[in-house]
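Marked as duplicate of an earlier ticket. Keeping the data here for the record.
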Amino acid sequence: MRFLVLLLVLSTTQVFAPSSKSNNYPIAKPNCDDHCGNVSLPFPFGLTKDCYLNEDFFINCSTGIDGSPKPLLRHSDIEVRSVSVEGQLTVMKGIARKCHEEFRAFFRPLDKDVSSDVAWITLSKFYVNQTANKFVAVGCNTIATVSGYEDERSYETGCIASCNRFGDVVNGTCSGIGCCQMTDIPILAKNVNFTLDSMAANRNTEGVVNCSYAFVVKKDEFDFSSDILTRKWEVEKLPIVIDWIVSNDTCSNSRSTCQGNTTCVPFEGPDGGYRCACEKGYEGNPYLHPGCLDFLFIDGSADIDECVNGQNNCSENATCKNKPGGFLCHCKEGYREDGKGGCQLPSKDGNKVNGIVLGVSLGTTTLLMSSFCVYLGYQWRKSVQMKEKFFRENGGLILQQKIAHGTASSRTTRIFTAEELKKATNNYDQTRIIGEGGFGIVYRGHLLDGQTVAVKKPKMMDPTQVNQFINEVIVLSQINHRNIVKLFGCCLETEVPLLVYEFINNGTFSEHLHDKNKASKIPWSIRLRIATETAEVLSYLHTAASPPIIHRDVKPANILLDNDYTARVSDFGTSRLVLQDQTQLITMVQGTLGYLDPEYMQTHQLTEKSDVYSFGVVLVELLTGRRAIFYNGPEEERNLSLYFLSSLKENRLFRIFDDNVVCEENTEELMEVCLLAERCLNVKGEDRPTMKEVAIELGRLMRASKHPWVNHSETNMESQAPLIEPPISFGYDAPFSITTAYDSLKHHMELSVASGR
């Protein structure tokens, strides 16, 4: 028995003993420089025409201001800091910064702004890595966004950094106080922008410089320090990790690129492509001939076949087998090793020895298999324990108690298992993704009963809000409204709970508004109906639901459309139940930039009127076909709601209307919807209408549009004028009345239609 244990220990030590590896192999083509300064440049990258694979991998070794060599990506000023043959580049890229002293009005900085509040990185063949980077914003009055565009896929998300007292700031923590961050970039993209704006007017924190910064940075290259807030940060550039691929082709066509002892690795990007990698046990540059080498023979020289040229000492009873850097001798059939490097026939005692060897081998194999089974059992138990832990932490026991006591119905509030949703989404296959953004990822799934569902995988949940989350799941799953996406239930066995919704198959209202081909298929009549149905849903949530529900993220991207273009309001992930006798003072502002209520952002006081403001932005978006925030245009057009209000004041609304909504028959309807949107966009919540009033007004307009004999005269409009509250001042030089707006808007609309627009 002692012999068996000793033999097992020795064999295990040999199997797992670390091997010494050499890195003495070429990284560039012969006669080619493999460095620019202290940066190594492995092939397919190179400095001259014969030294790189193609123009995409050309590195311009220029001279920096200090006279030192500086490698730059081709035809750009992007400095390269490191290159790896595994498919990553680390490059230096600038940050967005804004420093100013005071504000004149909401979102309108003085001309004293001395910094660029927009930074971007634009790449031709490379992608900003999703997981190796993070997006960071620093400041005490900062709204920062990061957006990416790749073919028809895009995203726009961000975070808010604020601090009322410098003493609240904690070094090394980016939780929203002085610093906020996102640890993942939503999609692979070649074009990424990051932008700064200010959260509120006239906020100055004592001891803090009024500067803001936003940037994408390699995760381990930035740690937040409160010192950044007390002085102007002089850093100009920070490192970013980007991915590169050798070709957009498929692995079936990789033979000419991937050399010996290599394998092709497909790239999971929007354009496909692949990289080359060394096989296990080999090292080197997989793109250079002759390919990767055995780690025991890695000095770069050609291998010699000792079995062919006679440079081996195998005995006559053995066969020679070549290997990189050497050879092996194998005894012929019927012979065994004699312990002296030769082979001989077995002796009479050979069967006993063979029996011992066979017994030891079987014992070792049995022990290893038993250990493996014990390990699998341990992993299974650990998985079960983790699921039980997450289930308890996410409020599973609370939900089960509510179902058992009748507070919730098991028929409407279903608890799914993690394994059930894993099978439904084919292990969360990327081809099943139907939506993604800062909130998380949504997958299409197929349950065992054949029902198609949408499985939402959020990024985070506040652990202090478990009871609130469970109550919200119960209430939302019991809502049965034809224009609300049905919530079937949730899964609580994962770190972040998964939500299971009804599947709506015609995309979002946002996709239809901002795609030219799709926008032409939704004329004014359909847009008015979608707006009316959405307003009725929000009115229902505010007044008929018990307790009332504030959506908090009303936008076209959260309005789904079925095949008949019927609106289905979705994504209650940030909604909040309005409990009686409870002040809705929110510690962290949540929502989407461009749709956020300015009063809510300043006071953190959440009311139903916050949804009214967001809906006002939706009305303007369906009238104009423009995005709520658009950074590629002139500065005055970046914020759609402010641009709309200024256009209304200056009597030039007809210039910004979408061509698909303007016709001779709907002039007065457009006027009334514009005035309704203006009321919804009042800065003060008390001056906005309720969602019930908005729904009634839109319903009246929709019913009137179906009956052309209804009188749409100015008299009829003027009879409604007393019901419309006058808007509050936006800081304009002269008062602006509803009647003036109506008459002027009507005049310009008639001119626009008459001119054939």
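See parent ticket for discussion. DSSP finds 17 helices and 36 strands in the chain.
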